[in-house]
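Morning - zinc ion inputs below, output right after.
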Amino acid sequence: MQNKKLYGGIEAGGTKFVCVVAGGPSHIVDEIRFKTTMPEETLGRAIQFFKPFAASGQIHAIGVGCFGPLDVNPGSPTYGYITATPKTGWSNTNVLGILRGALGIKIAIDTDVNAAGLGEYKWGVSSGHDPSLYLTIGTGIGGGYIKDGRSLIGLLSPEMGHIRIPHNHELDPFVGNCSFHEDCFEGLASGPAIEKRMGMSGAMIPENDPFWNLEADYIASALVNYILTLSPKKIVLGGGVMQREFLFPKIRWRVRELLNGYLTSKSLLEYIEDYIVPPGLGNQSGSLGAIALAMQLNETNNDPRI
Ligand SMILES: [Zn+2]
């Protein structure tokens, strides 16, 4: 019997793991979700889940979209390791090596945001738009930039959450909560920054609170920087903070205001509602992105990441 090719995908998040076996968004064969505990237990559960599929040859490769900081340089001796993380027990965990050693099939690893960006590009709202940008604004802030169908990795993986954006201390006296930079983008606009500043989570703050104009301004400031430097053809905003959908029109309006007519693309001037958008795959961008990553690995035999 000739089945459609199946792949494994792991959305390895700091709070939960999602493991899927799928051939694509409309062909999900099995799925399991569990809390991220200590590495041995958590990776052990993922291995247990995939083992029968790998042993029987049902899956050809696994993609992992992993929380970080992650070593994404294939030439590095610690490639595929989570490096120095504040998450207890996970510093210097060889995620890629442990999974490869236990499952014996091809495994690709990338950051969680790069994988989500890839998922949206392959099957979601940025399909056909290359280059495209996926940004998550939640517990942390991070961005995945997809160019020529692949995530951009340079010296390291981009850390788009930690850029500097204008901070008016009179308007917003909050010092910021990034442990490295205080008032970088993440330090000002992530979920924990909102909670620390406002004394309640973003989900509890009413829609008409003027705070949201400030939040939209921070996000728009960052987007303007990405638009001017990376020129994405589509920007996808995911993550917990962006669950508040009323933020989208505020952000779009402010992006146009900050650009002030400098860029003349119709995407910005006339169709910005289709330019800055929520994820097309909902909360599955990450897990399906991991599947897309596995597929990519299977397509190329000379991939340095194998
Ligand atoms: Zn920072």
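Note: Residues 162, 178, 180-181, 184, 186-187 surround zinc ion (CB under 6 Å).

O.
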